[in-house]
TrEMBL record:
<dbReference type="InterPro" id="IPR035476">
    <property type="entry name" value="SIS_PGI_1"/>
</dbReference>
<comment type="pathway">
    <text>Carbohydrate degradation; glycolysis; D-glyceraldehyde 3-phosphate and glycerone phosphate from D-glucose: step 2/4.</text>
</comment>
<dbReference type="GO" id="GO:0006094">
    <property type="term" value="P:gluconeogenesis"/>
</dbReference>
<dbReference type="InterPro" id="IPR023096">
    <property type="entry name" value="G6P_Isomerase_C"/>
</dbReference>
<dbReference type="GO" id="GO:0006096">
    <property type="term" value="P:glycolytic process"/>
</dbReference>
<dbReference type="GO" id="GO:0097367">
    <property type="term" value="F:carbohydrate derivative binding"/>
</dbReference>
<comment type="similarity">
    <text>Belongs to the GPI family.</text>
</comment>
<dbReference type="InterPro" id="IPR035482">
    <property type="entry name" value="SIS_PGI_2"/>
</dbReference>
<keyword id="KW-0324">Glycolysis</keyword>
<dbReference type="GO" id="GO:0004347">
    <property type="term" value="F:glucose-6-phosphate isomerase activity"/>
</dbReference>
<keyword id="KW-0312">Gluconeogenesis</keyword>
<dbReference type="GO" id="GO:0005829">
    <property type="term" value="C:cytosol"/>
</dbReference>
<dbReference type="GO" id="GO:0051156">
    <property type="term" value="P:glucose 6-phosphate metabolic process"/>
</dbReference>
<dbReference type="GO" id="GO:0048029">
    <property type="term" value="F:monosaccharide binding"/>
</dbReference>
<comment type="pathway">
    <text>Carbohydrate biosynthesis; gluconeogenesis.</text>
</comment>
<dbReference type="InterPro" id="IPR046348">
    <property type="entry name" value="SIS_dom_sf"/>
</dbReference>
<feature type="active site">
    <location>
        <position position="489"/>
    </location>
</feature>
Amino acid sequence: MIPFSRSPAWLQLLAHRDALGGKTARELWRADPARGAKLTVGCAELALDFSKQPVSEETLASLCALARERGLPEAIAALFSGAPVNTTERRAALHMALRGDEHTTVGGVDVLPEIQRGRERMRMFSQAVREGHWKGATGAPVRHVVGLGIGGSSLGPKLAAKALHAIADGPQAHFIENLDPAEFDDTVGRLDPAATLFVIASKTFTTEETMANAASARAWIERSLGPGAVDRHFVAATASPERATAWGLAACNVFPFPEWVGGRFSLWSEVGLPVAIAVGMTAFDRLLAGAHAVDLEFRSKPLERNAPVLLALLSVWNRNALGCASHVVLPYAARLTGLTPYVQALEMESNGKRVDRDGTLLDFATAPAVFGGEGTPGQHAFHQWLHQGTDAVSSDFIVVARPMGSDADRHARLVAHAAAQSEALMNGVETPEPWRSCPGGRASTTIVMPALDPFHLGSLLALYEHKVFAEGALWGINSFDQWGVELGKKIAGSILPAARGEGTAPDAATAHLLSVIHKLAQSG
Ligand SMILES: O=P(O)(O)OC[C@H]1O[C@H](O)[C@H](O)[C@@H](O)[C@@H]1O
């Protein structure tokens, strides 16, 4: 395939950009006051307002031509077919199958029966825990469920548990990710072991942080309830069930999920168990249904009205034509605080790549740095950089239409701030005092959710998943592997003896750093 940077449709887009002559969304709005309706697209029950992006209808048409030239419709079809689109690991990426009821084959095997079995086991187990039929070793019902996982095995459940707090009527969900034992101590310090259930979520069941936290949790349970208590206080969600049983879990406490579920796409699988326990399986089903509704649209809607595709095309436009090296995700909802790290992992692990699917070094930029955080607190922290910093940046605002708390007026104020920020970023302001002036011309999309509930949350997350896949397909990269994270893990292993003070560091720079750390450790 011709590299993205040399594809004729892209070269045409660059010429179109030059012809636009830096026209901003503000100028485009002046020229066409009906632009709002034309550039607002529905996605399941979400609405995406693209009208503050510096694009004309012609730009969007050319971007869609780029998508066709890059084979995006074929890539979407391949994704849904169960083909091994994750080429370096020779795996399908079929997380969509977890939220639908279609027969899809992977390697000649229909995956639906296995998925339905898994969903049924989740339903029965979460119900038993929520209704108090599943009891701890002392006979006490579960009041706290603690997810032990990291990365893809934690970000999704953690985000969803917090986002759905308003309907969480089961045991309280907690999450421990860090290798730093302080997080473990601080979390379990407030819990009663007799009423605590741990869900070890790890696709590989080898990840250092998760296994360290699982070992600490087992010691904590055994210390107060005895060695026999493990069976009543631990379950696992994993694609390596044999490792989980080798760890000491009864086979009936292991909830396996298939290899073709990528870590950062695993919320929809048994990894979502802490969420199902906290909000109930009916609500979890709605989360799946909301995501499924987006899957259907992504698969079948024309590119011109296909929201994940348009998000991806605009991202490529901002990144490669307009030079935005960073992208901010700004949910105006306190309960959506987990969205930014979730999207960050999705985008940066999937598309933070420097070679294409054939291994050829790329000569164009890929994933932007993603950061951000909830509005309005971010307005008092990093938004200054958005308004007056020297770098080009694009933004996603996420607004919930219906009030989330008890005070409707405060919700109106929250909405006003979200709208004000995107307007200020687009329009800027010119004043005689240069330090007050804001240049404007910053691109943003606003995603409106009718309500913060399971269905719309599912839709929002699937929207981002498919955006990231489409973007990777346009660039010609494999969005489903993450080899870059392995190097640091390997080096940490070789440094560990020296970090413990029991060996020599593998290189001079590390030896120096460890000596500084060890010296300060002893100084207290
Ligand atoms: O689920 P696990 O096998 O424990 O993996 C947890 C996480 O760690 C890895 O290093 C990857 O970077 C993530 O994509 C993955 O989700």
